[in-house]
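During the reporting period the student researcher (J.K.) took over the structure-prediction task from the postdoctoral fellow and processed the backlog of single-chain submissions. One of the processed entries is reproduced below for the supervisory committee.
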Amino acid sequence: MTGRRSLILLSLAVGALAAFAAAGCGENGRTPTCPALSLYDVNAPDAATDPKIVAERERAVDAGCMTDLDDAAVVADDAATTP
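J.K. obtained the following structure tokens:
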């Protein structure tokens, strides 16, 4: 019984490690290094166009950590018009 219990615990540990490894991978099996993003109030009229926020967002897009907002709008429009 002890051997079976150890095997179950080992299987759970390996599964947990695999889940963490898979969740951290980006494209091509590499983990992206994402730049920090500032929090801002999305309801504030000029927050999304603040030069600091725009620059941070561009760095995140270049690093592959975020979808460009212009691209996201096109995809959303295409999804809305596709039957």
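The committee noted the following: The helical segments are 2-23, 51-62, 69-81.
J.K. will present the remaining backlog at the next meeting.
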